[in-house]
Here is the input.
Amino acid sequence: MSYNTLTPEEEYVLLHKGTERPYGANYETFLREGEGVYICRQCNAPLYTSEHKFDSHCGWPSFEDEIAGAVKRVPDADGRRVEIICAACGGHLGHVFVGEHMTAKNTRHCVNYTSIKFLSDK
Here is the structure.
């Protein structure tokens, strides 16, 4: 599989499990994006649809569900959280939280904006 060339910041997040700062420059853009799909910045695999996007006011993009089979959940190195990675390439996306009562599905995928790219349906 061939991967996209990543910037140093993208490498830090996707390959080294880093976290970008909350409410970064791309966060406001995320809130305004219309209908479409969010793909992995490293391998272009479809991960999330705009249908499942919501504003959790946490400072990072949030989704209540992923595209079936697109995201894997693995124990985080800290032993407390659940990490989410791209099922296709293993790139670090962020973390998933259950039980916060923010959505009907009671799930929040807290995703680093640096890990994803938006493709509009238009």
